[in-house]
């Protein structure tokens, strides 16, 4: 093999292949970071879409119950007066902000108020003035476009589509949704998107699909980071090839010293130097070779540092994505980024969701002891000015910024502050601080929204007690715990006596007041470990962990007597209303099961009803 061939192979193996490998690794890291961010945004968008949809449905159900219980609607249904019924429905729809309402009388033609595409409908049966079933009603308080706009704002600008079949009901994108998958990847209006979503019943019964879309990063060609790596690679390769060609053409012969130096360099020893004595071509080649070796060492070192930084960014993105809605962890990640990016020594985030004037500490990094006074001053100045503030005490500097909600009506969420000694924060530091402070505020808002949706999912809106679904989860969990630890589990079921008569005589507003007051007594009488819930209608239940039959009976008697002492003011007119309740109690031990426990308490409740009401009966 000729010397020229060997030299060419030497440059290929030493320069081109390692640089290509490093460039490929850098591009893959950049791509991986972008893909991870897109997946995180999609997952957060899915949770926000489902939570907002459930909230809209809950409001529709509340409106449906109000209209279904309206006495004028019931009277018009009984009399068959369609004109009066339509007028009353339009009035109720306007009061309750119902976007679309359809009432279908039994055996009659549907009556519809409002219109347009809607989401999250609620259905409710209708009764006439005589209490007989008179038809069905469908109500929606949320338009498809309004839902899509609000969801896009909540998710920080994600695209949203609401469709029914191949029809677009509303959204933030133009174009036909035909053939668009519920989850996966697709192209819409010439742009590739990643998609996730869910289906739910629509106003007419046909399913409605809600999709959240993120522009597909993997299909956008080279990103800014990978493009820079590619350009640098091409430039470096061009320089290396030119230099190699020049060196090969200029060399006349091979010497042992140059060969030995090349072998050392090929083994990764960049400290080797080729002798450059004399003024001939070999001396010039040796000097250039030495220069190239130094450049390679410096560039490889830079690439290694860059690769380490990219790996750290990827790790932090992955850690942040894994934290989900863990607010302290997300805020700590923001502070860590400020420490690395803005050169801060320490920092903290305080939130004002508690009545204390200084709020509560949600996250902090570094040793705050030496910076407490300067950080307090910066936080106070930022709150007073409602904008970013910087303070100085001696050689200590602090920077603070209030965390505002995206909806200004929600006021101040908290304040974020960082500090360091020796030098002021530069404009670049402040720009990074401002950007990450906005991200922290968005994290706080998203966390609050998530907690609100979680509370609504397990709470009865009228009474504030746990709902039936939550009760079933609790009774199942407590029954399993009773079996595992050989404890007893008590169960109380109560039913408000003559509740239908209260509704018929005084109206549903009075009935709602009775339910709320009885629920209050039940909640105030319960221990922290007890689980009071609205079982259904006027029936309520309490699971009593580690409580036997006699203990459950004594608890029920205390609650019954407190309810008996209630004197409720009439909603309309003067006077008061007294109510009573009947109770059934039961308990289970390790040998029992949940269904038998509920059945026994229910049977005892109905014995109390048959025995004259306003009494407590134990299970047989």
Structure explained in plain terms:
The chain has 620 residues and is α+β, with helices and mostly antiparallel strands. It has three domains: 43-220, Beta-Lactamase; 325-447, Beta-Lactamase (2-Layer Sandwich); 468-618, 2-Layer Sandwich (Alpha-Beta Plaits), CATH 3.30.70.270. It is built from 15 helices and 23 strands. It has helices at residues 3-68, 71-79, 82-96, 144-154, 224-250, 256-266, 281-323, 327-342, 372-385, 427-458, 468-485, 499-506, 508-525, 549-564, 594-610; strands spanning 100-105, 111-114, 118-119, 122-127, 133-140, 142-143, 159-164, 167-171, 184-188, 191-201, 207-215, 346-351, 360-365, 389-393, 396-404, 412-421, 489-496, 531-536, 539-545, 568-569, 576-577, 581-588, 616-618. The strands form six sheets. A five-stranded antiparallel sheet has the order 8-7-11-10-9, covered by helices on one side. It is elongated and about 120 Å long. The N and C termini lie far apart (102 Å). The relative contact order is 0.07. The mean pLDDT is 82.
Distance between the termini: 102 Å
Task: Give the uncertain stretches in residue-range form.
Answer: none
Q: Report the helical percentage.
A: 40-55%
Q: Pairing-aware structural class of the strands and helices?
A: alpha+beta
At the fold tier of CATH, the topology name of the largest domain is Beta-Lactamase
Strand arrangement within the widest β-sheet reads 8-7-11-10-9
Tell me, briefly, the overall form: elongated
Number of domains: 3
Q: What is the level 1 CATH name of the largest domain?
A: Alpha Beta
Largest sheet: 5 strands, antiparallel
Radius of gyration: 36 Å
Strand content: 15-25%
* DSSP E strands, number: 23
